[in-house]
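TICKET: design request
STATUS: open
ATTACHED STRUCTURE:
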């Protein structure tokens, strides 16, 4: 996308891929509304980037999201692009994690998508243009032990985005669902501080910039599903054709 004069809304912009996207779009001349719950993260993202407007918004709060979108459109202009990247990733076995944590994760990772899409997509459809990008994950393609809770949120993100696309295709808005493998961001540290699956230990994480570049390319190519690496594409294929092969490896690696 030529960024000059465009308006982007990014959730989870106080860290990781949201931050990288916010700075990249802003450097390219876009006006960026950066949403996050982390005030400190937002300040750091916006530091030295006058085109970034930091907004402390919790994506689980539909009323706040709706108000933020109204304010952004009246102050910055109609939103051209949405990246929903806000998420958390506590790991562990399903029966060992408490229900509150699992449901809170669903509320942020998936509930946030519901609120953001409802507040922005109808406006974009009315104008007949815009980009709507959901951040799913390879965890939303390949479920593994100790990542069941997070995977469930990402399967929900993928399914919601797929149906959202089909219900609104050919109306000028581009939809994309990106499924990255491990990416070098603070989310990985967050996961590692909990009961981290051994399966993910050997993975060399991608750089956030690689994922954002893949999203840009995928949007240009009109792709709904964006797998930002060759391994991710192969993984998705193997999961579809031979799911038990992957489970066999998961059991072997986790040791039970
Ligand atoms: N890093 C990875 O390995 C990886 C891999 C695949 C997919 N993803 C997905 O990519 C997206 C971006 O991840 P990241 O690695 O940049 O994560 P990150 O942890 O660096 O950033 C996530 C941001 O979301 C914010 N956030 C959390 N709860 C929020 C809420 N209720 N409201 C608003 N903001 C909230 C956090 O404060 C944080 O700044 C996520 O959806 C993640 O699930 C990440």
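STATUS: resolved
RESOLUTION: sequence designed for all positions
ATTACHED SEQUENCE:
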């Amino acid at each position: 996308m030529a960024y000059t004069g465009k308006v982007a809304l990014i959730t989870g912009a106080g860290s990781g891929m949201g931050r990288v996207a916010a700075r990249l779009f802003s450097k390219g001349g876009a006006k960026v509304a950066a949403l996050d719950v982390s005030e400190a993260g937002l300040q750091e993202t916006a530091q030295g980037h006058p085109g970034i407007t930091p907004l402390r918004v919790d994506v689980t709060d539909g009323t706040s999201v709706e108000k933020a979108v109204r304010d952004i459109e009246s102050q910055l202009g109609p939103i051209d692009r949405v990246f929903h990247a806000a998420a958390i990733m506590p790991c562990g076995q399903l029966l060992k994690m408490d229900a509150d944590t699992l449901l809170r994760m669903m509320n942020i990772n998936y509930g946030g998508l519901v609120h953001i899409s409802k507040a922005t997509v109808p406006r974009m459809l009315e104008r007949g243009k815009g980009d709507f990008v959901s951040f799913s994950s390879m965890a939303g393609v390949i479920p593994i032990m100790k990542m069941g809770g997070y995977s469930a949120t990402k399967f929900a993100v993928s399914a919601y985005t797929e149906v959202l696309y089909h219900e609104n295709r050919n109306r000028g808005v581009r939809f994309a669902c990106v499924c990255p493998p491990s990416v070098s961001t603070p989310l990985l540290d967050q996961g590692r501080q909990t009961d981290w699956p051994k399966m993910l230990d050997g993975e060399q994480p991608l750089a956030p910039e690689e994922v954002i570049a893949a999203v840009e390319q995928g949007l240009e190519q009109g792709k709904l599903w964006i797998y930002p690496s060759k391994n991710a594409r192969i993984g998705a294929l193997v999961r579809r054709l031979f799911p038990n092969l992957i489970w066999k490896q998961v059991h072997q690696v986790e040791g039970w």
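CLOSING REMARK: The longest strand covers residues 31-36. The beta strands are 7-11, 31-36, 52-56, 81-84, 130-135, 173-178, 225-226.
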